Amino acid sequence: MLPDWVEPVARYMLVEGLVGTLQIAAIALAGSVLVGITFGTLLTIKFLPLRGLIRLYIEVWRGLPILVTIFVIFFALPAVSQQLEFDALTAAAIGLILWGSAQVAEATRGAVQSIPREQHEAASALGFGWIGRHSFVIMPQALRRLLPPLVSLLVNIIQNTTIAQVIGATELLEAGERQSERLVAPAPIGLGEIHAFEIYAGVMVVFFLISFPLTRLAAVLEKRLV
Amino acid sequence: MNFALVATFLTDLTSFVSDNFDELAAGLRRTLVLSAIAIAGAFFIGLVLGAARAHRIPVISPLAAIYVEVIRNTPILVQIFFLYFGLPQVGVRLDAFTVAWLAVTIWGGAFNTENFRAGFEAVPHRYREAGLALGFSRVATFLNVTLPIGGRIALPSSINTYISVLKNTSLMYVIAYPELTTTALQIQALTLETVETFTVLAVTYLVLVWTMSALIRLLEARLALPEERS
Fold first, then answer.
1. pTM of this prediction?
2. Which residues of A fall within a CB distance of 8 Å from B73?
3. Cα–Cα distance measured from residue B24 to residue B209, given in angstroms and rounded to the nearest whole number
4. Could you tell me the sign of the dihedral formed by the alpha carbons of B30, A62, A88, B190, in that order?
5. How far is the C-alpha of B13 from the C-alpha of B195, rounded, in Å?
6. Which of A23, A33, A81, B166 has the most CB atoms around it within 10 Å of its CB?
7. pLDDT by position in tens, chain B (length 230)
8. Cβ–Cβ < 8 Å for B43, B51
9. CA dihedral in degrees (A65, A66, A68, A71; nearest 10)?
């Protein structure tokens, strides 16, 4: 059987940690898709200043390590203005959205451009404006092409939520670290034992169980839809 | 835009850089050394295991598949924690530098194995058959036919992996290895010049990553397969 220390540690890691991880991931995914699809569609407009700005946005947030982006949001923004002070979870989510939306924007541009011109013309002939044409005619078709990269993005977002640990947000890795440190403490609090090996191996197993089916799904979708 | 404010900030930045130049340069050098080791290692791992995967070499190919899936489906930050904080419990003590280069090499190697496998598998089967029909051995066919063509097909995706390797060296902050990010945060803690520190840090990474992708685009154009050259 499992030793006694495992049960409370695992419960804390799943109830506090995993829930935090999924929370950050859900916010980051929703934000990345929303911002990314908007920017990616705007990128297909042939208006240079706008395209330049979105390009810059994409290249900056794709170019920076996510850790540095999160540090900038968490440490540098509050130094500029008091109003820009975020808690760790929000700062991590914003950092992931900036990075994720840059990825989605790039993928969306390709997906929208892959829709034949006739679709645009037919939609215009039916009286759709630019917004209506993209939301009701082009995007539903582009989404098919976008689905495999979005599933891969979800995997990457879930894995990158661990970076929130560095600024102390409660997620799976942070929960594991707290428990590992607690167990080292003497008797009433911990056990005076080191269990870092089992705990971090456990964190890896949980991430693997979540990510592996999703990467398989992305591969299957890629074969089926494209 | 307040022009005077921008001017003051730029002078601040210059004095910040000149005040902390030695530390920043040392940090940057360590980031570059780590990246160079890891890129070379990832190239080698990717080449060998990618070839093993593409040619379905018994024993090695399934083991390589497990390695790739484990590394790709777990966060690199947890891998770093496991190597640095988990392994000492079972008697394996690695110093920060070893964990730093090892973690990014293992990570890059896994992604590169997949890049090279896809590249080698994209080489039309008839090319390989032609090589064998001309009397080349299997190894010679690989070196003269599959590698030059498949390697170029794998180039764009493997290059993205190398850029990610460079960016991932920043994660060595968690084990306090004094590369660029760790150094910058130490300077920030001492000087409290928060905005200057993070501006310099972010700009340095952008310059590194943008230069790397520009250089690589040149290389890609030079190495493009003849039929894709425009």
1. 0.91
2. 155, 207-208, 211-212, 215
3. 17
4. positive
5. 9
6. B166
7. 678 888 888 988 898 898 899 999 999 999 999 999 999 999 999 999 999 999 999 999 999 999 999 999 999 999 999 999 999 999 999 999 999 999 999 999 999 999 999 999 999 999 999 999 999 999 999 999 999 999 999 988 999 999 999 999 999 999 999 999 999 999 999 999 899 999 999 999 999 999 999 988 888 888 877 766 55
8. no
9. 180
Predicted ipTM?
0.91
Q: Chain B residues contacting A, CB < 8 Å?
A: 69-70, 72-79, 81-82, 85-90, 167-168, 170-171, 173-174, 181, 185, 188, 194-195, 197-199, 201-202, 205-206, 209-210
**CB under 8 Å, gap of 24 or more: what pairs does A38-41 form?**
A39/A101, A39/A104, A39/A105, A39/A108, A40/A104, A40/A105, A40/A106, A40/A107, A40/A108, A40/A109, A40/A111, A40/A112, A41/A108, A41/A109, A41/A112, A41/A134, A41/A138, A41/A139
Residues 6+ away with beta carbon under 8 Å from A174: A17, A20, A164, A165, A168
**Residue A78 is encoded by which pair of tokens?**
């509050």
